[in-house]
Write a structure and sequence with these properties.
90 residues; 2 strands; 4% strand; HTH cro/C1-type domain-containing protein
Length: 90
């Protein structure tokens, strides 16, 4: 072990977020929704996250899932789905 625990694979998280995104929500729609929530997102930010080029912060992930229609009642299930097999415990 090299002392690194819980290293998250951004590309794996991105794949999971792509699955959760409603297909009718284009990257431009997602970018606009996130800007309305106070985040400095461009229209291609979600694409960059989904392709593993950019990591997503927890506050962004929560706001994004709310944008996708998740509520407190099912938010944990969605976050668990994103993190499952995304963490590398080397």
């Amino acid at each position: 072990m090299n002392g690194t625990y819980g290293h998250v694979r951004a590309w794996r998280q991105g794949e999971k977020l792509f699955v959760l995104r409603k297909h009718s929500m284009t990257p431009a729609i997602v970018g606009e929704a996130m800007r309305q929530r106070g985040f400095d997102w461009k229209d291609d930010t979600i694409r960059r996250i989904e392709q593993g080029e950019r990591r997503i912060h927890l506050d962004e992930a929560i706001a994004l899932l709310e944008t996708y229609g998740y509520t407190q009642a099912n938010m944990f299930t969605a976050i668990n789905f994103i993190l499952k097999e995304s963490v590398n415990n080397e």
